[in-house]
């Protein structure tokens, strides 16, 4: 497993506390989007299409920290936009780490080498580099030549300086399972701590509408890609979630598991859908009509979604719901088999 | 328009990734971005995205999708370039390149004042910090040169030449500040500071009796004696330094706004030790050797050190006021 023991124990303690308190819904990962501006225009991204005045807007350090305090999730994923374009990203990270949060600083790594000196290595901080595959696939996905090489160089430098580094790969129609397996080898050789994989969500605002994976295709792709995983591969994800991607398990979405906060407020219902905004986290949890979302709801926007922000919290919760699921998780961690 | 019609328009505006024009029933209009809607109201950001506005639905007559649709635009761009990638030379900042305010000084000792102003520690020949929300970089480029390379490397939004100068105006003492209206070289070629920049600088420094405005002469050698300084003095010419000319030229060539703010180290009647005549990257060894010349030489150096400290403090105070004001003037990132 590519998740450090301290982080696993913190998350386990947190989930068990929620279970003891009989909380039906609780957040696991705060998705913090301090800005929407980005230095890339990826084909499958529907996050950054806003008027310039909104793209220039950003959350302040205090707003970011207040959102984390309000939400209370043990893990914070700083997404966007490109977070490294935020002038005070280092202060945001430092503030979250000081609060004991496990922080995933998501980045396309174009500015990472420049910004590393502003950040401090910490067991609570993981730099999560967006890598959609081998050089050709990644550069094609982000629509710019040379991005893969820049990211690889930045990963090497970050690892050399003692940072925890993970990768985050979004897969689309046409992804080649064999090439992805080579990609996993390559990332492990670079010294990354763990990898995250997920099918892309079919944002209706994304430029390329032709290459989003449907559910069945996702299962087939992930089953082939993760079949007989190599011992060297480490995934920074719940094994149960990976089994779900492979079609070996069926989970329902947990949209409240990864609540999202950005310049508009708390986003309803999840990181991917924008059905509205509320001012407080409590309003988000109490006023959102959760039954309108997820696979079982028949909401057409949820039917093909298998993205980790909705299903990883389900997998983590499931781990602690039965001895069988806990056993399956432990077995996968020990044997490396999925 | 009927209420169902307005509600339909609200839903379209909510899904629209561009500005809309909302017409009130009293005939007034509001341009902005609709980011949410409730049973009885619409939530908007104004056009500059600085203010949240809640508009009761009962007050809305109609909504036009008047601004450019950012999602449609992204789709068109992608369709146009389908298959082709942006070149690797594309800026790592994308459309958001926002260069720093660049402070150029000659000697590392002069970085102290800038480091104080940009909230950073002075450790090496480069100091990085912030002026409010904007990045700031200070470099010691050596006396006389290096400005062009620094401007090319840092791609700044604004350049400030600062550091020590010698007074050519007898009324100026150590720690007095000279805001350049023009800088000129020894041949008489002159570059003027842009009037809007000067205006902002004057406003930022207003109330400080120790700031004067005028011409700065940029020489190739230090004017160390009273006689040398008097020979270079002209009406309106306030001070002499070694760098401002090359800084101004480099900034102008790069199309970046600039200004020069220098602090007086040596007044007209104060003579500098002979070893300071030549432009050097470091004067430490020369100063040490000079100090061995006897008690008088040592006292001279102590006095020079005190003047430098006074000058640095005065410059830091001025830069704290000037920096944030002028950095907003500089070349910004994407503006369309």
Number of helices, where a helix is a run of at least 4 consecutive DSSP H or I residues of chain A: 13
Q: Order of strands side by side in the largest beta sheet of chain A? A: 6-5-4-3-2-1-7-8-9
Range of helix content of chain B: 25-40%
Structural class of chain B: alpha/beta
Characteristics of this structure?
heterodimer, A: 338 residues, alpha/beta, nine-stranded mixed beta sheet, 13 helices, 9 strands, globular, B: 336 residues, five-stranded antiparallel beta sheet, five-stranded mixed β-barrel, 9 helices, 32% helix, disordered C terminus
How is this fold's topology laid out?
The complex is a heterodimer of chains A (338) and B (336).
Chain A: H1 5-20, E1 29-32, H2 52-55, H3 61-71, E2 75-78, H4 89-98, E3 102-107, H5 112-115, E4 125-130, H6 135-142, H7 147-160, E5 164-171, H8 177-190, E6 194-199, H9 215-225, H10 239-245, E7 260-262, E8 265-269, E9 274-278, H11 281-287, H12 308-319, H13 323-335
Parallel strand pairs in A: 1-2, 1-7, 2-3, 3-4, 4-5, 5-6
Antiparallel strand pairs in A: 7-8, 8-9
Chain B: H1 3-14, E1 20-24, E2 29-37, E3 41-46, E4 52-56, E5 60-64, H2 70-80, E6 101-105, H3 111-117, E7 126-131, E8 134-140, H4 147-154, E9 158-167, E10 177-184, E11 190-192, H5 195-205, E12 211-218, H6 226-232, E13 237-241, H7 244-254, E14 258-266, H8 284-291, H9 295-327
Parallel strand pairs in B: 6-8, 6-9, 9-14, 10-12, 12-13
Antiparallel strand pairs in B: 1-2, 1-5, 2-3, 3-4, 7-8, 9-13, 10-11, 10-14
Helix pairs in contact in B: 3-9, 4-7, 5-9
Description:
The complex is a heterodimer of chains A (338) and B (336). Chain A contains 13 helices and nine strands. By secondary structure, chain A is an alpha/beta fold. In chain A, strands 6-5-4-3-2-1-7-8-9 form a nine-stranded mixed sheet, sandwiched between helices. In chain A, helix 3 runs parallel beside helix 4 (89-98). In chain B, a hairpin with a 3-residue loop joins strand 2 (29-37) and strand 3. Chain B is elongated. Chain B has a five-stranded antiparallel sheet, with helices on one face. A five-stranded mixed β-barrel of chain B has the order 9-13-12-10-14. Chain B has helices spanning 3-14, 70-80, 111-117, 147-154, 195-205, 226-232, 244-254, 284-291, 295-327; strands at residues 20-24, 29-37, 41-46, 52-56, 60-64, 101-105, 126-131, 134-140, 158-167, 177-184, 190-192, 211-218, 237-241, 258-266. Chain B is built from nine helices and 14 strands. The chains are: A alpha/beta (338), B alpha/beta (336). The interface between A and B is large, with 38 and 43 residues.
């Amino acid at each position: 497993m590519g998740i450090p023991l301290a982080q696993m124990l913190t998350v386990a303690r947190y989930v068990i506390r929620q279970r003891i308190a009989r909380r039906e819904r609780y957040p696991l990962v705060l998705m913090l989007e301090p800005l929407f501006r980005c230095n890339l225009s990826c084909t499958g991204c529907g996050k950054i299409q806003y008027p310039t005045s909104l793209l220039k807007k950003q959350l302040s350090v205090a707003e970011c920290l207040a959102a984390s305090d309000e939400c209370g999730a043990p893990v914070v994923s700083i997404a966007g936009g490109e977070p490294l374009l935020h002038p005070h990203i280092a202060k945001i990270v430092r503030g979250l780490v000081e609060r004991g949060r496990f922080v995933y600083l998501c980045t396309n790594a174009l500015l990472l080498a420049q910004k590393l000196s502003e950040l401090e290595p910490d067991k609570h901080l993981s730099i999560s580099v967006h890598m959609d595959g081998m050089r050709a696939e990644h550069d094609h996905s982000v629509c710019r030549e040379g991005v893969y090489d820049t990211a690889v160089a930045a990963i090497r430098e970050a690892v050399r300086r003692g940072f925890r580094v993970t990768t985050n790969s979004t897969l689309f129609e046409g992804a080649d399972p064999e090439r992805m397996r080579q990609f996993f080898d390559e990332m492990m050789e670079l010294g990354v701590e763990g990898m995250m994989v997920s099918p892309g969500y079919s944002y209706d605002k994304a430029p390329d509408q032709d290459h989003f994976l449907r559910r069945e295709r996702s299962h087939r792709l992930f089953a082939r890609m993760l079949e007989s995983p190599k011992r060297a591969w480490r995934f920074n994800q719940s094994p149960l979630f990976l089994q779900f991607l492979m079609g070996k398990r069926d989970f329902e979405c947990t949209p409240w598991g990864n609540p999202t906060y950005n310049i508009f407020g708390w986003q309803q219902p999840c990181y991917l859908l924008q059905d509205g905004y509320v001012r407080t986290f409590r309003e988000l949890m109490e006023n959102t009509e959760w039954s309108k979302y997820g696979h079982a709801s028949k909401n057409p926007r949820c039917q093909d979604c298998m993205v980790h922000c909705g299903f990883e919290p389900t997998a983590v919760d499931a781990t602690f719901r039965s001895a069988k699921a806990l056993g399956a998780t432990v077995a996968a961690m020990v044997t490396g088999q999925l | 328009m009927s209420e169902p019609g307005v509600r339909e328009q609200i839903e379209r505006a909510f899904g629209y990734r561009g500005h809309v024009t909302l017409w009130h029933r009293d005939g007034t209009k509001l341009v902005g971005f609709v980011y949410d809607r409730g049973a009885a109201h619409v939530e908007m950001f104004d056009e500059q995205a600085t203010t949240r506005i809640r508009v009761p639905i009962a007050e809305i007559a109609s909504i036009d999708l008047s601004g450019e649709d950012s999602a449609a635009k992204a789709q068109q761009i992608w369709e146009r370039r389908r298959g082709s990638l942006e070149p690797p030379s594309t800026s790592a900042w994308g459309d958001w390149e926002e260069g720093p305010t660049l402070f150029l000084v000659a000697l590392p000792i002069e970085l102290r004042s800038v480091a104080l102003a940009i909230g950073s520690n002075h450790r090496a020949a480069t100091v990085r910090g912030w002026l409010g929300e904007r990045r700031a970089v200070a470099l010691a480029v050596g006396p006389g040169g290096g400005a062009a390379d620094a401007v090319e490397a840092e791609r700044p939004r604004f350049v400030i030449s600062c550091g020590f100068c010698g007074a050519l105006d007898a009324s100026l003492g150590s720690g007095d500040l000279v805001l350049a209206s023009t800088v000129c070289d020894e041949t008489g070629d002159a570059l003027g500071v842009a009037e809007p920049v000067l205006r902002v600088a004057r406003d930022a420094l207003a109330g400080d009796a120790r700031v004067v405005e005028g011409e700065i002469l940029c020489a190739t050698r230090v004017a160390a004696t009273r006689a040398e300084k008097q020979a270079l003095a002209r009406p309106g010419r306030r001070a002499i330094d070694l760098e401002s000319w090359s800084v101004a030229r480099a900034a102008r060539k790069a199309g970046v706004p600039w200004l020069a703010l220098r602090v007086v180290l040596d007044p007209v009647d104060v003579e500098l030790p002979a070893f300071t005549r030549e432009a050097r990257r470091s004067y430490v060894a020369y100063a040490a050797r000079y100090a061995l010349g006897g008690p008088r030489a040592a006292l001279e150096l102590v006095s020079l050190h005190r003047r430098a400290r006074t000058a640095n403090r005065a410059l830091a105070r001025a830069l704290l006021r000037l920096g944030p004001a002028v950095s907003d003037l500089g070349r910004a990132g994407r503006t369309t």
